């Protein structure tokens, strides 16, 4: 497949400003960029889409620049929000920029290890574009060339003004000018001709192209934009959200097993699409996975492959193997307690790594259900026990006064607490 065919086959593109970009970037030797704001100290699954979009260009010998937007982060993107974002202080922004920088390098290093390919990329903090520019200079350099009428028609602004109780501050209104000027500087300083972005950023991308045509110092003002569609699951829910909370690409914010389990639980209808978007395997290789899955959906072969492949890219092969061990132990055909008995010390360490919970002293089952975070109140925990929703070492617990002790440990090693059918905690004594 050529670049255009592969990006379309993987559902990675929604709109492009000019399809000539595919022919240009198919040849390699060009530069593209994606920008993100450091509103948190980690990316989340929703951001993961652009890694895979950018990868298709890098595979063909193009350089990828990731802009971590310290300057835009100071202001806040109005897109996707019904109210103005809270400002972050400079110390927090600097911390977030550093963490995201490390994360981008880590994910791309994982992809290189998996594919055996080397990629040309650079992470740039856009503070360098603005640190020596005062407000009046920005207005003269940028503000003069984009009309208010134009800015009012951008989708991110229009959505905020659709209802009477919504408004947008001048600060947020100016966001698109800064993002647009980022593109100008990258175009002029790094010969970058393409910005990729989420579909909700199309207006800002076009603003950048307009500014390049008006104020670029280069004779050649060739510039393009390509947007990635908003990823929704088969039920219409926004991809990367779990009960309203982002799933992070940082093991410090949620375990790799959280991501692994998320993909293990996707519907059969989502398997093929997610495999194509979020894996580095070829389309032919993915078709074989999908065919095997379709022949016997109840075996969940597609979900198993998807969960492993995504976890491997985000967290590395070792973490993916550890998550696979957890799945085989908890959800395989073997008796779970017997399987744990067979784990050697290294395997047990891997099993516990993402599921363990340290208990400083054993006690009543009720207290432990609260201390492990499985329930928030005694009332909820009591109700769960009475409804046979709690198991210890795969045996139902019906007594709210049950006292856990060393004698309950599996082969003298761990205790396995289960809530409902799928939520496990392996308990270790501190």
Care to describe what's here?
The protein is an alpha/beta fold and 430 residues long. It folds into 3 domains: 3-228, HUPs (Rossmann fold, 3-Layer(aba) Sandwich), CATH 3.40.50; 255-333, Tyrosyl-Transfer RNA Synthetase (Orthogonal Bundle); 356-429, Roll (Structural Genomics Hypothetical 15.5 Kd Protein In mrcA-pckA Intergenic Region, Chain A), CATH 3.10.290.10. Helix content is 49%, strand content 13%. The strands form 3 sheets. It has a 6-stranded mixed β-sheet, with helices on both faces. It has a 5-stranded mixed β-sheet with strand order 9-13-12-10-11. It has a two-stranded antiparallel ribbon with strand order 7-8. The longest helix is centred in the N-terminal third of the chain and has 26 residues, at 90-115.
Mean pLDDT: 89
- The CATH class of the largest domain: Alpha Beta
Strand content: 5-15%
Strand adjacency order, main sheet = 1-6-5-2-3-4
User: Could you say what the CATH architecture of the largest domain is?
Assistant: 3-Layer(aba) Sandwich
Would you identify the CATH H-level superfamily of the largest domain?
HUPs
Estimated radius of gyration: 25 Å
Terminus-to-terminus distance: 55 Å
The biggest beta sheet is recorded as: 6 strands, mixed
Shape descriptor: elongated
Helix count? 21
Please estimate the helix content.
40-55%
Output the structural class: alpha/beta
Number of strands: 13
């Amino acid at each position: 497949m050529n670049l255009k065919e592969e990006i379309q086959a993987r559902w990675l593109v929604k709109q492009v400003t000019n399809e000539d970009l595919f022919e240009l970037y198919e040849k390699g030797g060009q530069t593209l960029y994606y920008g993100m704001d450091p509103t948190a100290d980690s990316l989340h699954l929703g951001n993961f889409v652009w890694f895979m979009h950018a990868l298709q260009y890098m595979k063909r010998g193009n350089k990828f620049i990731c802009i971590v937007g310290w300057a835009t982060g100071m202001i806040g993107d109005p897109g996707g929000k019904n109210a103005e974002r809270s400002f972050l202080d400079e110390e927090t922004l600097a911390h977030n920029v550093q963490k995201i920088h490390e994360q981008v390098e880590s994910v791309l290093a994982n992809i290189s290890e998996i594919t055996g390919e080397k990629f040309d990329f650079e992470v740039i903090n856009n503070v360098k574009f603005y640190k020596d520019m005062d407000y009046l200079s920005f207005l003269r350099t940028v503000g003069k060339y984009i009309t208010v009428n134009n800015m009012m028609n951008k989708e991110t602004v229009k959505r905020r003004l659709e209802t009477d109780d919504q408004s947008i501050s001048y600060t947020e209104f100016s966001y698109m000018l800064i993002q647009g000027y980022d593109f100008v500087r990258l175009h002029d300083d790094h010969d970058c001709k393409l910005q990729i972005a989420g579909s909700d950023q199309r207006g800002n991308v076009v603003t950048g192209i307009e500014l390049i045509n008006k104020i670029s110092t280069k004779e050649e003002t060739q510039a393009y934009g390509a947007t990635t569609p908003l990823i929704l699951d088969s039920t219409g829910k926004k991809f990367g959200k779990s009960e309203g909370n982002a799933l992070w690409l940082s093991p410090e914010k949620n375990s790799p097993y959280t991501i692994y389990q998320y993909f293990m639980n996707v519907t059969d209808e989502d398997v093929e699409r997610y495999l194509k978007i979020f894996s580095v395997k070829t389309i032919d290789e993915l078709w074989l996975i999908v065919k095997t899955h379709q022949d016997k959906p109840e075996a969940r072969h597609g979900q198993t492959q998807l969960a492993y492949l995504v976890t491997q890219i985000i967290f590395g092969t070792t973490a993916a193997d550890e998550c696979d061990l957890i799945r085989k132990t908890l959800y395989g055909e073997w008796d779970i307690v017997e399987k744990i008995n067979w784990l050697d010390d290294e395997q047990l360490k891997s099993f516990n790594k993402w599921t363990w919970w340290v208990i400083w002293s054993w006690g009543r089952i009720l207290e432990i259900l609260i201390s492990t975070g499985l329930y928030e109140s005694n009332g909820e925990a009591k109700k769960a026990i009475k409804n046979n929703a709690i198991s210890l070492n795969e045996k139902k617990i019906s007594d709210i006064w049950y006292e856990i002790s060393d004698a309950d440990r599996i082969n003298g090693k761990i205790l396995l607490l289960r809530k409902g059918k799928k939520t496990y905690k392996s308990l270790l004594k501190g």
